[in-house]
Amino acid sequence: MSEEPVDVLIVGSGAAGAAFAWRLADTRMNILCLEQGDWMDPAKYPGVRNDWEVRQLGDFSISPNTRGRREDYPVNDGASPIQTSMFNAVGGSTILYAAHFPCFHPSDFRARTLDGVADDWPIDYRRLEPYYRVNAHMMGVSGLAGDPAYPPKEVPLPPVAFGKLGETLAKGFNRLGWHWWPSDSAITTQEHEGRAPCINAGTCLAGCAQGAKASTDITYWPAALRQGVTLKARCRVREVTLAENGMVDGVIYYDADGAERRQKAHVVVLACNGIGTPRLLLNSRSKLFPDGLANRSGLVGKNLMFHPYAMVTGIFDEPLEGYKGPTGCCIMSQEFYETDGARGFVRGYSFEVVRGFGPVSIALRGMQMGRLPWGAGHHRAYGELFDRTAGVVAICEDLPESGNCVTLDPSLVDSDGIPAPKISYRLSENSTRMLEHGVARATEVLEAAGAKETIAEAPLPFAGWHLMGTARMGTDPQRSVVNEWGRCHDVRNLFIIDGSIFVTAAAVNPTNTIQALALYIADTMKKNLANLFD
Amino acid sequence: MSDETRNRGFSPDEVRTLAGVLDEIIPPRDDGRLPGAGALGLARYVDEALENMPELRSMIGDGLAALNDLAARRSSRVFAELSKQDRSEVMNELASTEHAFPPILILHVYAGYYQHARVIEALGIEPRPPHPKGYQMEANDLTLLDPVRRRPKLYREC
Fold it and tell me: How many domains does chain A have?
């Protein structure tokens, strides 16, 4: 092993790892982060070239299986109706995410008490509220205060442009008397902390060359590095190692040249996402933990939650200029968010209005939907689609089920020979009913907005962006993996800070809450430094 | 043609046949503002797109050969020399055989066509990458939110 142990070793530099490193940096402890991916160069993002849409089918695909770069690991998700999406680089999946940035609601932390399903979180909305505020400033969140779907909250920057598409849909919501509100977006709409404002390029999902979208390589990391945190890229951790006293003492990793290295640490913090973290724990077996590190509960890898998505595309007569503006951020609705027993399911969903697509994407989607023939009718069919579509997606709350899980694939490995994860997942009856409800209501609002035709897809097969629940938090070591501040019940110097620790999934994009949790855990560690392992 | 030879790219004859196929997949627009995919020169684009997919290139190459066989049987000419009507009929005939072109060929043709500057311009968009210029958008009309602002709170206290 490396002779000198670091005080804190973070595995993963994405949404959680970056926020945590920055928050802990003022302790002046020796903090090191190992990241399997490399630094990205925004000047080389696809949006600077004409073929930018095509690159989303290859080296900038949201699927690690499609990209297949050295720094990606494969995921066996062939048996799941929802395939996983992630990115491996400094900044993690924030490089390619849409930056839709809502908070959870107070009720999201109390599903058992309010609705009799799943479990309550061991913390509540008020505990995270101050960290949402810190995160909004650090990430540069745009939006609008006063949303009746949320307790009062501050939003640092004005909302992203609705555009003709957003206003058309907003009028549809108004005609039905339904709630809608400008999306909270981690996208700068004005100069903010040295970042330029959004120019409505519409390339968010292929990386933001403008730097307006908040990926953590341009938000938290520069600040953390200035404060003395060390980040080593292209270092893939194979396993967390255990000392004889039952505490972890470091990791084994492969460096950029593929050489095996060891790094000692007094504290290890996992921030590898809801699939990468259980994969690493399950790959870290020992006599003390034959079923995977910190897995006496048997819950490591269990209770995997995605957000099942339904998408309804409306086709309009008039141009909507949908290729302009942030791709996934426009307006949203939470008319059907809170539980209403009359709907036939518990919990609920958000609607997000998504923009139209660029010229290539609309052609490929048209082909996929069976709406764009080749031959004589091609140009007429394309003309009916291009710049005349708007999407409404229902992002449904997935409830934890132990059968939905991450395990290790018996044969699939990554480029360093480390066993890869396998996903077992099925849609619950509750999720299925929620998706059906979402499709019907999304169709209704698109028609109210003037759509002449709608096309529904549910569940969206490629929408496994949100990876949660596979090492959940709780106060009972029999029923959870980490305690109420991210410390593993079984190993007191091992922490988990990513989406794995979510108890429930809520029905909004999770990144803001992942980061608020990471900030909260860092602060709690700082308060408990004197007796961190008691 | 052997697979080894084909892996170095389609031959000039194959490119010529492929260009005819591409014009059948995306023909010229009736108003004349847009050429067909073959006339736009996308055969070489497709060839390059298949560079790392030798099996697919081989499959498409076999399809091109089969197309010429069908054309020869019909009128003793190669596919590229057929009339437009005959080309369409031969393409449809091929679709029911084992040499039917795979959907991924269509995907590459669409991808190449709709990123071409001439096509982008005809769609009414400035033919340039989105960055660094981006797009202008109108200021938001926040009065649309007036009915929503009048609603009571929707969230549950707990």
Answer: 1
